[in-house]
User: What shape does this take?
Amino acid sequence: METFEITSKEKKELETIGNFYREAIYSQKNLPDALSEFANELDSFDGEISQTIISEVLQYQKLIQNRNFFAVLREWINELYEQFSSVLPKEVSFTIECRRKGVQSAVKKMLRNYFEKSSIDLSDLVAFRIILDSNLLKEQLIQFCYSISDNCMDFFKGKRCTLCAPSRKVGESNLIKDYISHPKKNGYQSIHLTFKTLEKDIFECQIRTLDMHEHAEIGDAKHGDYKNSEYSWLEPYINIDPSKVHIPHFRVLNNGTLYDQIGLLDAMHIERRSKTF
Assistant: This one.
C-alpha cells in the first residue's frame, strides 16, 4: 500500500471535507443535488485541498446528468461491435462493455491524486472495456489487442475525438498507457487510451485479453482489492452510514459496498455487448 505524508492541517481539512460530503449525501434525494451541495460547501471553505477538487466534483456532476453522452456511447458500442466483427478472425471472440465510475470511487480518486502531487486525472470516469478471447496462442491474442488499439484510434478519430496524452507515461508511446508490456506491480495488464470529444467529454478505452481481465477482476490485480488497499487510508474521512442515505438507486450495503445505479444498467455498466460466434 502506498502511503503519503499528511500534515496535521491536511488531516483536519480532510475531516472537514468528509463532513461536507456526508452531509450532502445524507440530506439530498438525488446525486446531482448532493454533488452541487458538496461543491458549494467546498467553495465556502478556504482550504487548498477543497479548492483543488471543486472543479472535479462539478465535472462528475455534469457527467452523470449527460444523457446525450450516454446515448452516444451506446451507439458507439454497436458501431464498434460491427467494426471488430469485420476485422477480427472468427476464432477471436470479444466483449465490449462501458461503465461509469461510482461517486465514492471518484471522490476518493480526486483526493488521492491531490496527495500524489500530480495533475488530477479523471479520464476514466467513463471507460470502454474491450475484452478479447481465443484458443490462439497468448502472444497472438496480445497482438490482436494492439491491433484493436489501433482500430480504436482510427474509429474515434472518425468521430472527431482527440487522443489525449496520459498524465503518466507507461511504455514507449506518449499517447497510450501500455500496461501489457509494462504490467503494474500487482500484475495488472491492459492498454489504456484516453479520448476527448468535441463537447470536452473525456472517456477511456481499456483493451485486454480475458485472462488479463479475470486477473484484474478476481485475481491478484483485483480492482476492488486494489482500491481497498490504495484508498484504505481515506476510509476514516470518506465513509458513509448506509442507514442515512435516502437517494433512490444509490444503495450502500451494510459491509460498505456502494451500488450506484443512477440511470444505468447492471450497476455502473452503461451497456455490454459480446460476440461469441
Summary: The CA atoms of residues 243 and 252 lie 8 Å apart. Residues 74-275 form a domain with the Beta Polymerase; domain 2 fold (CATH 3.30.460.10). The chain has one domain: 74-275. The helical segments are 8-27, 31-44, 48-64, 67-87, 103-115, 138-158, 210-217, 223-230.
